[in-house]
Each structure stands twice: as structure tokens, then as C-alpha cells.
Input
Amino acid sequence: MDKYRHWHQTSFKVRDYECDLQGRVNNSVYGNYFEHSRHEFLLFKGIDFAELCEQKIHLVVRHLEIDYLKSLSSRDEFTVFTKVEPQGRLKVLFHQHLLSNLPADEHDLKEQNNPSRILYAKAIVTGVAVNEKGKPFIPDVFQKMI
Amino acid sequence: MDKYRHWHQTSFKVRDYECDLQGRVNNSVYGNYFEHSRHEFLLFKGIDFAELCEQKIHLVVRHLEIDYLKSLSSRDEFTVFTKVEPQGRLKVLFHQHLLSNLPADEHDLKEQNNPSRILYAKAIVTGVAVNEKGKPFIPDVFQKMI
Amino acid sequence: MDKYRHWHQTSFKVRDYECDLQGRVNNSVYGNYFEHSRHEFLLFKGIDFAELCEQKIHLVVRHLEIDYLKSLSSRDEFTVFTKVEPQGRLKVLFHQHLLSNLPADEHDLKEQNNPSRILYAKAIVTGVAVNEKGKPFIPDVFQKMI
Amino acid sequence: MDKYRHWHQTSFKVRDYECDLQGRVNNSVYGNYFEHSRHEFLLFKGIDFAELCEQKIHLVVRHLEIDYLKSLSSRDEFTVFTKVEPQGRLKVLFHQHLLSNLPADEHDLKEQNNPSRILYAKAIVTGVAVNEKGKPFIPDVFQKMI
Output
């Protein structure tokens, strides 16, 4: 997994209430997984989303794109890898990949280059900070992020 | 609203539990709105998503793109407009626009061409039918859809 | 439906994303239905939940009880009936019944006394108002509610 | 924590999308936490909820009671403790307590008897197994559960 060495990681296990009629995780729930992973990434960078809300600094999503490659089901364990890059002066771009966890018995041997991880989904998310009136601006926290 | 004359319509009202820390509808919930609108569109075409599930015909989303233009808040009432077009032999493309409802007092006068409706979000969703083994195929219902 | 003549009503249609692995509406979603119905009831009484939040007046649930009598499934249409009564000096008690809608063809004939409505679920919810420090108090809006 | 020595434990961290307008975890989400904890408990006992669904054995909730004692907020980490007892011949009763995790620095010293854990919520859930026609019965798995 050399590719993801510098990406932030958040681990999950599918919860049954996230599955729908088809017996698979509902499409919209991937949006939840990706959001939680972004907020964990922000916390890791010293940025607390909930605190920003109270200061009326709103980090909002302008554009979201998800590729669904394989369906998640009950009991699946997986990790979302997140990295960020600036886009223009006011926006940031999050790249997020959702991969299966390493099978327990392969964890030690193949830690860095494991072909058996499955790529379930990929997201690209464009974020921007807006003030109370909805105007985009560059908050101090952006410097911490990138 | 000439533009949407031939689009299918599903109406909603924001529910408070759909709003998050920011006091606005959470991004992932738009995914729910768009999904429900697609399923209502399918029902209108005589296609019952839940029944298909029981027949092991799975309509799945391969790609989702959402543009967030303006935030929905508590009490907002809105309509999702949906239309579909074929993409290649195996896929269908849904175009979905989420607009504010007409203000009640303007409803009669301006029914067909109303500049005061607000476009909140737009989605493009690529769907495909897969069998139990996950192989794409063309189910009979596709003919009803388009 | 003489019994419910003075209860507030909120109508719903099951959305497929609310159904889980069992092909039925997930238990927790009933909590959403009941909450939305309480907030609609409050609005009807002139009380705006979201506005109260901004004024740091928090209406919170202390106790929730739900009886699940019959499962809701895809496409079901139903109504939540809500009434409220004071409990002691600081609390209010919501009684909520979730019933199937009238079948369309029976709507006219049996409007007031229809034996064919199905009772899906019942809830009793104890609410209290707390200030920013979490202390219970009696807000002015309580007088409007009851 | 002697009291909970024989209870099953499932750990969680609040995700921001689970918080609502009030900046606290929405009431219905506690239903999700308790459900996921019951399913983890069942897995621990060798009972796979999703597999049972496929065999048309449905474990369903008949009655749910939640006491909300303190609100969960962004970043809170907590554990749901679950135990089960039979109720009559056909039902099982789950007792579930949601407590804050031990502060990291107190973890070693006070592992077994920690006064600083906070009780956020308690649930009592009555479950029953029903066949495809909705009739209650005693599945073999009940013996594993208790």
C-alpha cells in the first residue's frame, strides 16, 4: 500500500442498519463514510468541524463525485484513505478511496504492498469555507489543512 | 418551468432530523432525496424497485455526481425533477434537479415560467442492472424506463 | 376515526432507503417519523423547533417508548397522529399513533369511522425544555403547546 | 465497572452527521447504536443477523424503551454494554447501557471500578423471532443467545 502511505486513514465496520432492501450498504451511506473520514482527517490536522460551526465558519461541499466499484455488505470491514490538495485560491479538493481491510492473517506479511485489498469506491469532493452570509473566504484553518 | 415539462416530479419537505450541526440539510441526505425520486420515477413507469430486489434483479448506481448550489434548511419545501436517457447499451443516465417549490401565492399566475424557483442542487446518476453474480445485463424493465 | 378527531396528523410514504436487510422499515426510522410529526405538530401550534435552537432553548426527549405492532414496507402510505398532555410542571407527554392511510376507494364513504386502518406502531415520548446549561425550565412556548 | 463484567461491549465514536440542529446526536441515532450493539452481541454468540434474513428467519423488535440521561456530542467516544434474558417462552429482553469511555489516562488505574464513566442512555428492547408469515416461533439460534 505504498500509494497510500501519506493518506489519512479512518476505519469502519458496516452496521446492519446501513444496508438496504438489496442487502447491501445504501449508496447514500457512502457519503456518510466519506464525510466522517474528512472530519477525522481535519481533527488530525487540528481542525475541529463542530467548533468551526459554533464560530459560524462553515466548511461546505460544493461538488461530490462517487464511483461505486463494488458493494459493501453486512460485516465488511474497511478503511477510507483521504488526502487533500488546494484548488485555486478558495477551494480544496479531497481525494478519498474506500478499500477493504487487510485479512487478519495477511496483515503482518504484506503490510506495505498488498494486492488483496479491494477498492470499493472512490470519491472526489470539492470543499469551500463560507461565512454566515454564504460568501466564500479563506479561513486561517486552511493553512493547517494542506 | 417549460424546461421541466416532461420531467418526473417528486415533492418533499425538509425534516429536522435531516439537518446537521450546521443547521442545514446534511450533504448525504441529498443522496436520499435523489434516490427516493428515482424510485418514484420508476414506479410511475411501472417498475417496482422492491419487487425487482425480490427477483434478484438489482438496479445499482455506478457513478454519482452532485452539485450543491444552495443549502436546504428546516421547513424548506422543494421538488426533485428527474429524467432519464440511455447511455450505451447497458447503462442509463438520470438527470435530477432539486428546486424550491413555488411560493403559494405565485402558483397560479406563473405556473409555467417562474423565475423565483431556486435551484438548490443538481445530480447526474449512472445506473446499471446487475444479476445475482454482479454481471450487468439488460432487464426487460429498461424498455419501460426510457 | 372519531378517536383521532382532535389529534394532529402528518402524512408519510415509506422511502426505500428507510428499509433494511429485512426488506422492512428499520426500527430506528420510526423514531424519525415520530420526531418529524412532533415538529410538524409544534409548527401547527406556532412553535418553530429550529428557531428555538437558535435561541438556545432546547426541547429534548427524556424518555421514548415504541410498540411495534406491524412492519412498514416499501410503498406503504401512512399517517402519524399526535396529541400532547402536560406531565407534572416541567414535562410534556406526546402520544403518537402510526396508522395506515385510508384505501383510496374507501376514503369518501368511511371518513370518520374506518375499521380498515391498520395500527402499525404507538409511541409515548416525554419531552422537557432545557436551557444552555441543561437545566429544565418552563419556556413560554409550553403554553402554546397544550 | 464490576457491574458490566459479563455484559457484551461495542465501542463507538460519534460521527458529525449523526448530530442535528441542536448540535447533539439525534435521538433516533441512539436506536442505531443500540441495534448495531445487539447485532455485534449476536455475532459474538455465533448468530449472523444478515444470514438469518436470507433464511427468512426474522428477529424483530416488539417494544423499545430508551431513557436519555445526557446528550452525546461531536467527538464523544462511548461503549454500549448489552446483556440478554429470556422473557416467557417466545421473547428475549435486551438490557443496554450506553456509557462514556474511560478517559485514556485513567484507563489503567481504574479499569474495574471507575466512577468517572458517564451513563448517557439506557434501553430495554423486547425481541422475538418471526417466520415469513409473521408468526412468532423459537428458532434454534435462541439457545445460543442466552
Chain B has three helices and six strands.
